[in-house]
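A.,

Following up on our hallway conversation. Structure tokens first:
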């Protein structure tokens, strides 16, 4: 049986994220031996948890085999955490994906200057124009643009990179075969044809409120810099910025109108120490020393962004658009009743969403994310998303080193 099936089995165990499964892999030193281990052998693993052992005792491979067959038939590459093709840059973050699903040609991420460009889906013309220009300039200077391929800022950045004939990377919050939003089919296909699509979710995995915040750690994890353009306070981009800070990545911001709510989050990042930039070379040039081969370079005459007609492909020639599975719109969350300033503490009746209340109740004194995860019995992804949102609401303080305390 292919070894990948055992990795797919491990990746589908919800209560054992990568940050937890590594200790089991290191103990047994072989994914097959981990699969074959009985309860007594699993209890010998240092720092094991009973709920992890119980989950690992489920030896059913039916789901893993079905995913494997879908990937083979769909020409989807599977890259497990132990593969030489798995980016070390991503493997070094807290809770890296156990398995990556890839369509297209994934570049050698560890040897590329990758800049994430993210922002609000409901961007104005100013933000969209800047995003497309920044994406174009980053690619033109030899960098690679990555984003979540969402509407608004994310999509505009990738369009700019494609027009510079770059090789963008789209990080999905759904299964690798699902296009979300489904109006972005052309952009998805052009990104796959020129660069790559990646996801930690298997084929057919639907969109949800939790998958998109979780994928943001991957966007920042494969990047050297994260550029925020037009982000209000309640923006997923701020989650990406929080992940970037925790991962030791640079947070760069394009300034916006201080009187517009859609720029309140990004402008506050500037106030809190993020660096202001105005062009793509600002994000790329600072990393030129990492690439002595001279692959990065500022163009003396950066070309104007091509004003393609609506619907026109950004890639020369036609890109085949095969039949794809479309995502259904997830249920819209109830709007948060948070203060105007997201960092202002909610004093009377905190309004929680998703797993936030459960995570908040598990936090006592100063705790590490690992301890909170063990207490809550949630996945590391769910805990980190909840902690980030609690931090934005001013209920939790990040002390650094993955340690948190209530305010």
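Then the amino acids I'd put at each of the 407 positions:
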């Amino acid at each position: 049986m292919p070894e990948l099936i055992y990795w797919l089995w491990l990746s589908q165990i919800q209560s054992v994220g990568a940050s937890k499964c590594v200790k089991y892999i290191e103990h047994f030193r072989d994914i097959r031996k981990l699969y074959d281990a009985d309860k007594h052998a699993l209890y010998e693993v240092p720092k094991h948890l009973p709920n992890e052992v119980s989950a690992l005792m489920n030896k059913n491979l039916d789901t893993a085999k079905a995913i494997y067959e879908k990937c083979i038939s769909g020409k989807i590459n599977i890259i497990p955490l132990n593969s030489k093709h798995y980016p070390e840059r991503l493997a070094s973050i807290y809770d890296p994906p156990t398995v990556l699903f890839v369509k297209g040609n994934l570049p050698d991420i560890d040897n590329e200057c990758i800049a994430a460009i993210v922002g609000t889906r409901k961007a104005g013309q100013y933000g969209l124009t800047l995003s497309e220009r920044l994406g174009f300039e980053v690619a033109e200077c030899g960098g690679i643009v990555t984003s979540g391929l969402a509407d608004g800022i994310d999509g505009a950045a990738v369009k700019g990179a494609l027009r510079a004939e770059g090789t963008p990377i789209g990080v999905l919050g759904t299964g690798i075969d699902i296009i979300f939003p489904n109006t972005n089919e052309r952009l998805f296909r052009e990104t796959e044809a020129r660069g790559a699509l990646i996801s930690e979710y298997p084929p057919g995995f639907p969109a949800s409120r939790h998958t998109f915040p979780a994928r943001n750690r991957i966007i920042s994890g494969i990047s050297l810099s994260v550029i925020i353009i037009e982000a209000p306070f309640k923006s997923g981009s701020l989650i990406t910025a929080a992940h970037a800070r925790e991962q030791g990545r640079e947070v760069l911001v394009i300034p916006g109108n201080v009187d517009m709510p859609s720029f309140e989050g990004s402008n506050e990042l500037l106030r809190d120490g993020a660096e202001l930039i105005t062009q793509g070379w600002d994000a790329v040039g600072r990393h030129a020393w990492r690439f002595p081969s001279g692959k990065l370079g500022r163009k003396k005459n950066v070309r104007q962004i091509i004003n393609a007609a609506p619907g026109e492909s950004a890639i020369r020639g036609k890109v085949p658009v095969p039949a794809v599975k479309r995502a259904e719109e997830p249920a819209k969350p109830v709007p948060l009743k948070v203060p105007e300033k997201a960092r202002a503490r909610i004093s009377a009746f905190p309004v929680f969403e998703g797993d936030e209340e459960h995570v908040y109740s598990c936090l006592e004194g100063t705790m590490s994310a690992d301890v909170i995860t063990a207490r809550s019995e949630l996945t590391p992804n769910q805990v980190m998303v909840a902690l980030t949102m609690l931090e934005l609401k001013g209920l939790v303080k990040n002390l650094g080193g993955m340690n948190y305390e209530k305010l």
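DSSP finds 17 helices and 14 strands in the chain. Curious whether your intuition agrees with the design.

B.
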